[in-house]
Every structure is written in structure tokens, then in C-alpha cells.
Design brief:
23% strand, alpha/beta, 7-stranded mixed beta sheet
């Protein structure tokens, strides 16, 4: 585990994030769980634990400073990314992780149990079928769909002043041109990843 711990701690320093030892231990335990379950459940195309630290943990945590509100939904969470790494780092926030793939939600539920995350709820559902009792302050997506589709599928989940946070690679100019809502493109620097990364922050469409 030494190389993984080193990679994570140097990456956290590069992101200017300070975490407690138990949080770092939980993040590394999460990677071990993905590695263990990946063989049977095909959770991620990434096979190398060291790459998982960069592509799953540090990539997720790069958006931590831009997280808003206390009730956050991670739509199309897959293997629990970015929801679980963020939930580990923000125990004060409540996270709802949603995916339509039952294998993946089974894994995420198991990870939540093993990591003892009391601030995470896992829901197996299609996003358009989701009807939360209370709307969310923020909806997160990562490699989920095009921005106009994301807005159409998730606008019913957001509180009046809620925001949509879409994790993307390069800024998707064509998709942004089709958006009828105020937005902000936030460039992200992810330690160990040369490829471009950005976060698109979209205000809730009032007519959505």
C-alpha cells in the first residue's frame, strides 16, 4: 500500500487538501474494494490501483472546493465516483448515489457498509424515475451524458437555487452553445493526469 499512500498524499498536497488519517485510510480502502470487486463486476476499465488513485480519487476530489450545499446527488455514480470519495471528505454533507445498473449499485451499497459511511444513500433507479422528497442543493454528474440531456434529465431534482455540477474533459463548446441557463466553466488541475479536465457549473433553469 505504500506507493498508493504516497501517491494519494502527494496528490492531496497538490490539490491543497488536508485530510485526517482515517479519511485517507478510507479512500485507500475504497480503491482496494474496487480492485477486489472489479474482476467479477467490471466496475471500471481502470485496472491498476495506482491509476485508480489518480483517475478515481484525485479526479473526484479536484471538485471538492466547488461543492455547494448540504444535500448532493451523484447521478450515474457507477462505482461510486465521485460520490464516495466526496462523502468520505465531507461527512457534514448528505449524498445520494444513483445508478440504473444494479450490479454497480450493489457494489456501492457494499462499499458504503464496509467504509461505514452514514452520510450516503444508494438508489438503484433511472434518473427520470427519481422523485426525491426534498430537492437537492447540487446534482453531480461525471461522464454521464451531454449537457442539454443532463439538464433535461435532472432539473426536477434540484432545489430552486440548486446547481448542476457536470465533470467533463475538455470544455464541450457545442454542448455549452445549446444551454439556456447561466453557466461557468471551471478548469481543473488533477495531479498525475495530463488530459484536460473541467467542471461545468450550471444554475438551475427557472422554467426547468
Amino acid at each position: 500500500m505504500d506507493s498508493l499512500t504516497t501517491r494519494l498524499t502527494t496528490g492531496l498536497a497538490d490539490l491543497s487538501l488536508t485530510l485526517a488519517e482515517p479519511q485517507i485510510a478510507s479512500l485507500l480502502a475504497f480503491i482496494k474494494l474496487i480492485e477486489k470487486w472489479n474482476k467479477a463486476y467490471n466496475l471500471t476499465a481502470v485496472r491498476e490501483p495506482l491509476q485508480m488513485v489518480e483517475l478515481h480519487l484525485l479526479d473526484s476530489l479536484a471538485i471538492l472546493p466547488h461543492l455547494t450545499g448540504m444535500r448532493i446527488a451523484d447521478i450515474g455514480t457507477g462505482a461510486g465516483i465521485p460520490g464516495i470519495p466526496l462523502a468520505i471528505c465531507r461527512p457534514d454533507c448528505q449524498f445520494t448515489l444513483v445508478d440504473s445498473n444494479s450490479k454497480k449499485t450493489r457494489f456501492v451499497q457494499q462499499a458504503v457498509l464496509e467504509l461505514k459511511l452514514s452520510n450516503v444513500e444508494v438508489i438503484h433507479a433511472r434518473v427520470e424515475e427519481l422523485t426525491p422528497t426534498n430537492p437537492f442543493d447540487a446534482v453531480l454528474t461525471r461522464a454521464f451524458a451531454s449537457l442539454p440531456d443532463i439538464i433535461a434529465l435532472t432539473s426536477h431534482l434540484l432545489a430552486e437555487d440548486g446547481v448542476l455540477l457536470a465533470m467533463k474533459g475538455q470544455p464541450p463548446g457545442d454542448e455549452l452553445a445549446d444551454i439556456d441557463a447561466p453557466y461557468q466553466v471551471i478548469p481543473l488541475q488533477v495531479p498525475g493526469i495530463d488530459a484536460e479536465r473541467c467542471l461545468i457549473r450550471i444554475e438551475r433553469c427557472k422554467h426547468g
